[in-house]
Amino acid sequence: MNVVVITGASSGIGMEFALQMDNYFTNIDEFWLLARSRDRLKEVAGVMEHKTRILSMDITSDAQLERLEDTLTEKKAVVRMLINCAGYGLMGEFAGQNREEMLGMIRLNCEALTNITHRLIPYMRKGSRIIQMASCAAFLPQPDFAVYAASKSYVLSFSRALGEELRRKGIYVTSVCPGPVDTPFFDIAEKAGSTLAIKKLTMVEPERVVRKALRDSYYKRSLSVCSLPIQGVELAAKLIPHGILLKGMTVLKCYHL
Ligand SMILES: NC(=O)c1ccc[n+]([C@@H]2O[C@H](COP(=O)([O-])OP(=O)(O)OC[C@H]3O[C@@H](n4cnc5c(N)ncnc54)[C@H](OP(=O)(O)O)[C@@H]3O)[C@@H](O)[C@H]2O)c1
User: Fold this and answer.
1) CA angle 63, 64, 68 (to 5 degrees)
2) What's the 128 CA to ligand 1 centre distance in angstroms?
């Protein structure tokens, strides 16, 4: 049985992956949608044409990931695509962060993503693909978004190296690095801080990010960056010393840009 596994499928970008792939993917037997909220997963599954399995679970729990693995074995599933979207961010000064929420962000964005990727690779075959939601925050350190940006740098670095290892087996990894995307992400992210106004100007819809990500994954590209301003950020982060960019960000913050 060919399956697509999507984490964070109850909302935002993960939900959008499920809906777009439901339209275009014909060789998939089942979509497996993962998130904690069963009700929201049910709503997504309710509009899908493909057979859809709802797996209401906290992916930071090793025991729950073990059960996922058991189900994959029991169903003799082949994971054609793994899409890791579950994640959250917290803005605001590091010292003022709630420690448990901050450490939880590292557990979800980094540890759980690594854990599920490691557990699911044995169920993949030649031609399987992995999409990892990183962020343009991965390109450079970000004051007032420090731990989130570092967690996404981890995702990008890990996924690019993994992509080179798996290429030999015919499995392809794409890291997706959007700027701000219009999803419920900001309900959590802005609890203790706010997004720079200039960043909000570059906000895009999830449809666009996902369409580009699916195309880049199809063409076996290791990186997916969907809009011109964010491609500019990527280039700047490569060309300009990060010390200068960090000073620039502080100036923008002072003028509330
Ligand atoms: N929106 C943006 O501006 C933006 C930009 C760049 C990158 N990203 C990245 O894109 C990814 C998706 O974000 P989004 O914008 O779609 O945000 P979102 O709408 O808040 O979606 C986050 C998803 O993660 C799930 N989730 C959270 N904790 C979980 C846990 N412990 N176990 C299982 N699932 C969990 C949530 O479902 P439940 O609450 O039901 O568990 C939800 O489905 C994240 O990795 C984010 O960092 C977002």
Assistant:
1) 120
2) 23
